[in-house]
From TrEMBL:
SUPFAM superfamilies: Acetyl-CoA synthetase-like (SSF56801). Keywords: ATP-binding, Ligase, Nucleotide-binding. This is AMP-binding protein. Pfam families: AMP-binding, AMP-binding_C. It comes from Candidatus Anaerotruncus excrementipullorum. Belongs to the ATP-dependent AMP-binding enzyme family. GO terms for biological process: acyl-CoA metabolic process; fatty acid biosynthetic process.
Length: 556
């Protein structure tokens, strides 16, 4: 059965004279529910259509059709309700890349419960914070090479309100065995009434400037990801799409669930704990992945690995997000594959805001142009639009339609008010717009360096630094200076073949001076063994700045 345009029943769209999407309006019914109205409907129309291809490092493989996805999610919904999980409950999901994640998240949608995906890197302290903040009442966690069930039990001593615990791929006293319990149910499940405005997912933000906040998305949220899959990933009905994200991160539902299945494509999942570039390249070659999305770091590792020995001829499209793209990575990937990296920008609080959509000519290093989902502006500190070439904060006009944008931070009105005001949602990220309308990322509003009258974005300098062979990782911040007030500082992790020295500092400074305006070079260079990061791997520049301020005060 032809399913290519299945997604069109849920939206209106329009294109410019070059065939680039320039109008998009999701059309959720009042009772829209992705599990019932997309997955179950595809299962009805084309039951044997391939939905998910899963494999792991042990060589196991499972291929699931949409009919099977409906069946297993129905069984899971029966199982969860039988053990007390009901509509509105907050359910923690730590399921790594196990196929049980898809059964479970669909089941929660069908029940009307709220999924709270999280990474297996969480500690007891992290879990206590999340349990209390969100009001978690149930946990479904991996037991495969994972200590989270142990940490959950430790956290319960401080937070006793967890009433249900399932362990997937393992055994633990006091926990229900997910696999054995699932076998007890027959999939006879009747649709539960839900609303498009009901809460569906809760994600904790990265916490780069403070404790993680909670962004809640409604049942209508998946439809905003039609653009993500169809017009950014360029996914079509017979594609096999791979997004390299573990299910604990928001990027998983961007690239491993909603938009891809709305496009009737198949999702490819390689279940691993440790990323080995050659292994992933081999899987892409073996299974003939057609569309691929990963953060720039993954592409850097691929390039370093050397791709000459892999046949990626099935790959026809590649995209990137999660961190700003260095033009060097873009150029090297293009040399190897002939594919352009199509970058985009978005947040936990939103779907894709800015992107290089299908049909656009990307500019290496640019995030692209604003998505037709949103009316996006770049504004100064007083809320006025900035002219071309001037850095401003990225904001979304909330007085116009804004599908896919969260409704506010859960249980945190102060943070919501700080982000939603004066008719805008304030992203906290800055960029500048060129004469062709492309946006170029600068950094977080707190990260922009104001030195000697100049406003300096850290990413531009970091991009230059990353081209030096000695630099493995780096963070650029503003550091206190008794003469200039604030100066540019580079905190650098060196590659294994280099050792810290004053000569290397000067070499790196000269290297930057030759490639950027002289006022942008780092007057301070500090070599460290590691950078402070969040659980999600984002650099905590705020921690570097705080340490420098404290050192400056102590030296007075």
């Amino acid at each position: 059965m032809e399913m290519e345009n299945f997604y069109q029943r849920f939206c209106k769209e329009g294109f410019d004279e070059n065939g680039v999407l320039n109008y998009f309006e999701p059309l959720p019914a009042d009772n829209f529910n992705f599990a019932y109205d997309v997955v179950d409907e595809i299962a009805r129309l084309d039951p044997n259509r391939r939905a998910l291809v899963w494999c792991n490092v042990a060589g196991e493989e499972r291929v699931f059709t949409f009919r099977e996805m409906k069946y297993y999610s129905d069984c899971c919904a029966q199982m969860l309700t039988a053990h007390g999980i009901k509509k509105g409950d907050m359910v923690l999901l730590v399921l790594k890349r196990h196929y049980e994640f898809w059964f479970t998240v669909l089941a929660l949608h069908k029940i009307g419960a709220v999924g709270v995906p999280a990474t297996n890197l969480l500690t007891t302290h992290d879990l206590v914070y999340r349990f209390k903040a969100a009001g978690i009442t149930a946990c479904i966690c991996s037991g495969e090479h994972c200590k989270v069930p142990e940490y959950v039990d430790e956290a319960i001593r401080e937070y006793p309100d967890i009433h249900t615990k399932f362990i997937v791929r393992g055994q633990r006293e006091g926990w229900l065995n997910y696999t054995e319990e699932l076998k007890k149910f027959d999939g006879r499940w009747e649709r539960v009434p839900t609303s498009k405005d009901d809460p569906m997912l809760l994600y904790f933000t990265s916490g780069t400037t403070g404790m993680p906040k909670m962004a809640v998305h409604s049942m209508a949220y998946p439809l905003a990801h039609i653009i993500t899959a169809r017009y950014w990933h360029n996914v079509h009905e017979n594609d096999l799409h791979l997004t390299v994200s573990e299910t604990g991160w928001m990027k998983a539902v961007w690239g491993k669930l909603y938009g891809q299945w709305l496009a009737c494509a198949s999702i490819f999942v390689y279940d691993f704990d440790k990323f080995v570039p050659g292994d992933l390249l081999h899987m892409m070659e073996k299974y003939k992945v057609t569309t691929f999305c990963a953060p720039p770091t993954i592409y850097r590792f691929f390039i370093k690995e050397g791709m000459e020995g892999y046949n990626l001829s099935s790959l026809r499209y590649s995209t990137t997000a999660g961190e700003a793209l260095n033009p060097e990575v873009y150029n090297r990937w293009f040399e190897y594959t002939g594919l352009r990296l199509m970058e985009c920008y978005g947040q936990t609080e939103t779907v894709m805001q800015v992107a290089n959509l299908v049909g656009m000519q990307p500019k290496p290093g640019s995030m692209g142009k604003p998505s037709p989902l949103y009316d996006i502006h770049l504004v100064d500190e007083d809320g006025y639009d900035v002219p071309t070439g001037v850095t401003g904060e990225i904001v979304i006009n909330t007085e116009k339609p804004h599908p896919g944008l969260f409704g506010g931070y859960f249980r945190n009105q102060e943070a919501t008010d700080a982000a939603w005001h004066d008719g805008y949602y304030h992203t906290g990220d800055t960029a500048w717009r060129d004469e062709d309308g492309y946006l170029w990322y600068v950094g977080r509003t707190d990260d922009v360096i104001k030195s000697s009258g100049y406003r300096i974005g850290p990413f531009e300098i970091e991009s230059v630094l990353m081209e030096h062979p000695a630099v493995l990782e780096c963070a650029v911040t503003g550091a206190p200076d008794p003469v200039r007030g604030i100066v540019v500082k580079a905190t650098i992790v060196l590659t294994s073949s280099y050792q810290p020295s004053e000569e290397l500092k000067k070499e790196i400074q000269t290297f930057v001076k030759k490639q950027t305006a002289p006022y942008k070079y780092p007057r301070i260079v500090e070599f460290v063994t590691e950078l402070p990061k969040t659980i999600s791997g984002k650099i905590r520049r705020t921690e570097i700045r705080a340490k420098d301020r404290q050192n400056a005060q102590n030296s007075r």
